[in-house]
Recover the amino acids of this structure.
C-alpha cells in the first residue's frame, strides 16, 4: 500500500472538504469543513497545527489534523506534546487497511518532532466509540482516565 501524508494545498483542499465518514460514524468525527476552519483559526492565533490529506498513491482517501502544545481546555498531557486532533478515512475507502497504514505514517511524522521534542502523543474519542478504542489501543495508546470535551483521553509514549 502506498499511503502517504500530503500537506493540504489548493490542489487537494476541496477533495478533503468533500470527504465524509460512514453515516454511523458521524457522531464520532467532526466534519472536515469544521476541522479546516479550526486549523485556520489555530494558525491565526500562532499555535501549531498540521493538516494533511491521506493519499493512497495520488488519490486522497482521508484527512488528519495534528496539533502541538496546550490550548485552553486541553488535558495536562497536552503541554509540549502532540495531538492527533482529527483523523478520518472517507466512507468510500474504509475497510481497506488505509487507516492502519495512515496511523503508522502519522506516528512516524510526529516522531520527527516538527514542532519540538515531545514525550507523548494524545488523542480523544467518544466513550461509545468501541472501534476507536480498540484501534488506538492496538498502536499502544493507553487511556488516562481523563475526560476532555466529554471524550476519553488516550496517550501514546513517543520514547519507543
Amino acid at each position: 500500500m502506498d499511503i502517504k501524508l500530503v500537506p493540504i494545498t489548493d490542489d487537494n483542499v476541496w477533495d478533503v472538504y468533500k470527504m465524509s465518514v460512514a453515516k454511523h460514524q458521524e457522531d464520532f468525527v467532526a466534519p472536515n469543513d469544521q476541522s479546516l476552519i479550526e486549523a485556520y483559526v489555530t494558525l491565526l492565533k500562532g499555535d501549531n497545527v498540521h493538516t494533511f490529506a491521506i493519499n493512497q498513491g495520488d488519490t486522497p482517501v482521508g484527512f488528519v489534523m495534528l496539533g502541538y502544545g496546550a490550548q485552553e481546555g486541553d488535558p495536562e498531557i497536552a503541554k509540549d506534546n502532540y495531538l492527533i486532533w482529527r483523523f478520518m478515512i472517507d466512507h468510500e475507502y474504509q475497510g481497506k487497511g488505509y487507516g492502519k497504514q495512515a496511523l503508522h505514517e502519522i506516528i512516524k511524522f510526529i516522531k520527527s518532532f516538527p514542532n519540538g521534542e515531545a514525550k507523548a502523543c494524545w488523542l480523544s474519542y467518544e466513550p461509545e466509540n468501541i472501534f476507536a478504542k480498540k484501534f488506538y489501543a492496538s498502536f499502544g495508546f493507553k487511556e488516562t482516565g481523563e475526560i476532555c470535551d466529554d471524550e476519553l483521553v488516550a496517550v501514546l509514549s513517543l520514547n519507543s
